């Protein structure tokens, strides 16, 4: 598999749309197009191998499943993970002759995604820093009463930032990086220690993503029970992800109804106590 300049340019465009702060917006851009799960589909369509793209996207999504961007703190920017890591992982899988649905292919994809995650952080802060220049221009326009110039500050100038820190890096790394990844086939044979190490590390990376997710949602020991139910359903009944999601939706509705019932009861109790206090005052 090779990546042409046109394909690399398309990947660069989607990197611009999904970057944070992104031209595609927060909801559609960063939290939709930027997710590896969606980026895998986009990369698969662009490179002509949807199956491998989706598999790589799913593998990388496990690693970054708990990725959040509180304020200006970004541990890894998904623009690089989705639109640099996934294409290069697809090239690596094809060059190594791996089956797309094999465990080795998934582990290789996870490792590639993690390698470029730090690159995305650099691109994020570069974009944010250049945007400060446009912000300064906007403040000067406000001071001079040139309010129509704010449209340029909001809609035109940020394209320059994303072109410099999203489009160009993605274009160059996808096009030239594909050649380097293909050359890795000869330099790093499949049965060598470096590749085995890469596969081993890749197999462990999803544990990091799941652990971070658990740290965010688990407040007490019993919160682990719903988490383990999903694994039990998959292991015992052989259910896929969609089936487990439907069953979890049922539990979510039940938990919601129970919490609402508790809230209504607490409100009613508080109202009764208030009435009793009024009667005592009388």
Task: Reconstruct the topology from this structure.
Blueprint: H1 5-18, H2 25-33, H3 36-47, H4 50-63, H5 78-95, H6 103-143, H7 150-155, H8 157-187, H9 193-217, H10 224-237, H11 241-281
Mean pLDDT: 77
As a percent range, the share of helical residues equals over 70%
What is the ordering of alpha helices and beta strands?
Answer: HHHHHHHHHHH
Tally of separate domains: 2
Largest sheet features: none
Q: Helix segment count?
A: 11
Distance between the termini: 85 Å
Low confidence ranges: none
β content, as a range? Answer: under 5%
What's the total count of β strands? 0
- The assigned structural class equals mainly alpha
- The Cα radius of gyration reads 24 Å
* Anisotropy-based shape: flat
Task: Name its key features.
2 domains, 0% strand, 282 residues, mainly alpha, flat
């Amino acid at each position: 598999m090779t990546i042409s300049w046109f394909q690399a340019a398309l990947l660069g465009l989607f990197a611009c749309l999904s970057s944070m702060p992104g031209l595609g917006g927060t909801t559609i851009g960063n939290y939709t197009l930027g997710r590896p799960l969606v980026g895998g589909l986009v990369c698969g369509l662009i490179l002509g191998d949807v199956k491998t793209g989706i598999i790589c996207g799913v593998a990388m999504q496990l690693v970054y499943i708990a990725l959040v961007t509180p304020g200006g703190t970004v541990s890894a920017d998904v623009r690089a993970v989705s639109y640099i890591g996934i294409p290069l992982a697809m090239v690596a899988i094809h060059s190594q002759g791996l089956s797309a649905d094999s465990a080795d292919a998934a582990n290789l994809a996870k490792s590639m995604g993690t390698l470029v995650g730090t690159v995305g952080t650099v691109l994020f802060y570069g974009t944010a820093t250049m945007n400060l220049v446009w912000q300064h221009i906007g403040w000067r326009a406000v001071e001079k009463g040139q309010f129509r110039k704010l449209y340029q500050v909001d809609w035109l100038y940020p394209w320059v930032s994303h072109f410099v820190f999203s489009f160009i890096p993605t274009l160059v790394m996808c096009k030239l990086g594909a050649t380097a990844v293909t050359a890795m086939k000869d330099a790093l044979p499949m049965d060598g220690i470096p590749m085995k190490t890469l596969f081993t590390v890749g197999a462990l990376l999803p544990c990091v993503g799941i652990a971070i997710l658990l740290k965010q949602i688990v407040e007490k020991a019993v919160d682990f029970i719903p988490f383990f139910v999903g694994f039990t359903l998959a292991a015992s009944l052989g259910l896929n992800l969609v089936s487990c999601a439907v069953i979890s939706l049922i539990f979510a509705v039940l938990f919601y109804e129970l919490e609402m019932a508790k809230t209504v009861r607490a409100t009613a109790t508080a109202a009764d106590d208030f009435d009793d206090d009024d009667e005592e005052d009388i």
